[in-house]
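Shipment paperwork, digital attachment
Item: protein structure file
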Amino acid sequence: MSFENYILFFFSALGVFNGLVLTVYFLVIAKPWHISNGFFASLLLVLCIRIGKSLFFYFNPDLANTYIQLGISACFFIGPLLYFYSLSIFKSNSLVFRYWKLHLILLALIICIAGVYFPYRGHLALWKNYFMNIVYVQWFIYMLLTAFIIFPTIRKKWLQNDKIPTIYSWVINVFLGTLAVFAAYVTGFYTSYIVGALSFSVITYLLLLFFIFNKNKKSVLYLSSLKLEKRKIPNEKASELLIKLKQLMDDEKVYLNPNLKSEDLAERLGVSVHGLSSLLNDTMGNRFTEMVNNHRIEFAKQLMLSNKNLTLEAIGHESGFNSKSTFYNSFKKSVGVTPAMYLKQL
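Attachment content:
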């Protein structure tokens, strides 16, 4: 190889090397271990196998057919593993997630049967013209399913002015990185076959930088302790906190602050954010946003009765909502009708 090719090979191979290091880290070293770690490590592993096959095939077109078949087979699991990794973070209690083992076993049986009865060595045209297209279509479908899991949740938190957890940002970066690798392979016919490997190298370094420069490293790697641990507050302590919470809500009306965050309320109560979440879940069955919005809606109802000259937008603003859309959506979700319809009923 020429010097330029050696340089190209080096930078392309860095992604595979870093990916394998991260795979070992998430599988063996990362503590406390969670199922999401396993999915992420498996995703990195199949990406490394697929990228590695492309890398060696680019510089050695005579690569053994067995290795080529292995790389394509690994590609069959990229989309599903990304999908289940996202489910493990966003919707670990969903019915689909409970059957992840059966799902992956069925996919493994499909690719194994195809590989045994139609090996790449004897069915080159079949793999290139049909199997590869099936793999990429399947990968794209799972990418769409993953997007429908991630982005509605992020949009909801954004509309409710909730802080986006670091783990959610991490998953978004993983999703976008996988999408970039997918795009590189799909457009490889028009650019270069090595683009996928180079993209993967860039992505792994961006993920490493995201991790290194994050102050709370565990928040990048693991689910929050709220999801990993169900710490129930003792009844006596919970009673004291509820009395204090009622005072803050009824007397001080802290919910009227449109920028109120769970961190602010937790500080006033003298507990951690996870402690506040546990208190609300165990005693009220509500999340922070739901509890605050319920108080705001009740306040809005009172304003509708006592201040008939106020516009609905003004009522929403006075009640602590930071936007008209949030006020309307929260009101309808809680009361069952829009603020305008409720006002007409009055």
